[in-house]
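Structure first, sequence second, as always.
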């Protein structure tokens, strides 16, 4: 893909992400993605309640070293973010919010592939288990050696790969604050969730 077509496609992809529900999108050089083993290790210690429950999370994903190799094969990544009221993210609505994030990230990944970035890979915050299979005792892939129930939308966890999401937000020029404070206006009382699409 030549540089001119490349630029047009990336601009089109950003517009697409906003059109389908992302609040913010930012194209960044792939080198801005910081990956740290210690962050991936937090999934186990302190142990995440969803650790080991799905194919999207440790120990069932390939981990930081694998992602570093993938990032090295990319020139750019697309960071996307959904901003919502804090009470939705930190309350009973959280699984639905995270599901929406996975769905948007997956759709952006598919659009990137359609536009010529044929090996693109989308990652989303959080585990797919509580958002897509909360009513299922087990992940079908793990327990039955079967197919994922939601392959079109469930994506692997950024945390499990050790992505430093805070640094990613800073690189995009966005706030890293996750929690609202009591003295903020209603408009300011927003939290966010983020996804990442590696363009290659």
């Amino acid at each position: 893909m030549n540089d001119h077509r490349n630029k047009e496609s990336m601009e089109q992809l950003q517009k697409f992400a906003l059109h389908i529900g992302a609040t913010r999108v930012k194209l960044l050089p792939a080198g801005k993605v910081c990956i740290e083993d210690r962050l991936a290790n937090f999934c186990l210690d302190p142990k995440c309640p969803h650790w080991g429950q799905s194919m999207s999370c440790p120990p069932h994903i390939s981990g930081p070293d694998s992602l570093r190799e993938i990032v090295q094969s990319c020139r750019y990544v697309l960071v996307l973010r959904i901003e919502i009221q804090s009470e939705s993210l930190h309350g009973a609505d959280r699984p639905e919010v995270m599901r929406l994030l996975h769905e948007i990230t997956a759709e952006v990944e598919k659009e990137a592939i359609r536009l010529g970035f044929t090996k693109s890979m989308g990652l989303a915050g959080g585990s797919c288990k509580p958002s897509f299979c909360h009513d299922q005792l087990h992940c079908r892939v793990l327990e039955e050696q079967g197919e994922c129930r939601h392959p079109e939308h469930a994506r692997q966890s950024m945390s499990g790969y050790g992505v430093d999401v805070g640094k990613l937000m800073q690189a995009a020029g966005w706030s890293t604050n996750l929690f609202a404070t009591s003295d903020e206006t209603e408009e300011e009382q927003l939290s966010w969730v983020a996804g990442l699409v590696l363009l290659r």
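Margin note: The first strand starts at residue 24 and ends at 29.
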